[in-house]
Amino acid sequence: MKDKVRDWLETGKVDLFLGYKQVDGHPLPHAFSKENLAELGELIVSPARYALEKLATEILAIKPALKIGILGRDCNQRAVNVLTVHQQISPGQIQILEVNCCPSPLRKHAACSTLQPQTYGAVKLELGVDNNMSVAQMDQFDQESLYSRWMYEFQKCLKCYGCRDICPVCFCKECSLENNDLVATGGLPPEVPLFHLIRAVHMAGRCVDCGLCEEACPVDIPLRLLYRKVNGIVKDLFGYETGGSHEQPPFSLLGESTPPEAEPHSKAV
What is the reported pTM? Predict the structure, then answer.
């Protein structure tokens, strides 16, 4: 892995490589460059995960001429595909050096998992939603039970915005979750279930099932399951595989054969 990154930097395939470096005992994102090749000895594969493609996209918004490599899994590639079809980045701006992947319905052949099933207590299993459920298992509940279980989960929300901030495919410059006409400021919990339904609608056809939102959630709301549900609706209605390609624009679902002309990256919304 280190030899590959060194080759990419020395040959100019990438100008920066975003990976992980141990800092005071913590694996943190770090930018490696041709000017600091000696640091490659500290490059590690980390069980901790960050949305490196999101960091790369933010760097490219400032310096669009750069070519950036990232250490990533299959979900990172899906996120890069989504960012490309939504014209947040151009094809080829981000190169991925793949490491073993965690299982997901969007991943056809997973090698291993960093997302181990959690064990939950009796109260959550009785009143709430088991994060380990599949969408099919969740759909077996009747409507009344399903509603009460999700309301139990949503009422735990602290409105910390961790789910949005960690999400690699949240790129709107004006967030609906901060629109005072939709989600009022102050007061906890946030409007239930409006806050999470607004975000779920935005994740339909966009969520890459990386699970970072659920990892970031301090109260363990089963967000990954919720977004799998809305993604499944998009797939059933339109046959759209989220993140499966960087070429299929979401606009084609509405009959467009080609996406509209891209604006300069700095103006992308």
Answer: 0.83
Helices 74-85, 52-62: crossing angle, 10 deg rounding:
40
Q: CA-CA distance, 205 to 267, in Å (whole number)?
A: 22
Note whether 78 and 21 are same-domain residues. yes
Three-state secondary-structure class, residue 107: coil
- From CA 169, how far away is CA 79, in angstroms rounded? 6
Contact status, residue 35 vs residue 22, Cβ threshold 8 Å: no
- The span from the CA of 129 to the CA of 132, in Å, is 9
Q: Which residues contact 121 (CB under 8 A, 6 or more apart)?
A: none
Going through 68-224 in order, the beta strands assigned E by DSSP cover: 68-72, 94-98
pLDDT, tens only, 152-178: 999 999 889 999 999 999 998 888 888
Confidence of residue 98 (pLDDT cuts 50, 70, 90): confident
Tell me the chain's radius of gyration from C-alpha atoms.
20
Same domain for 83 and 29: yes
The answer to whether position 105 is within a domain reads no
231 and 163 part of one domain = yes
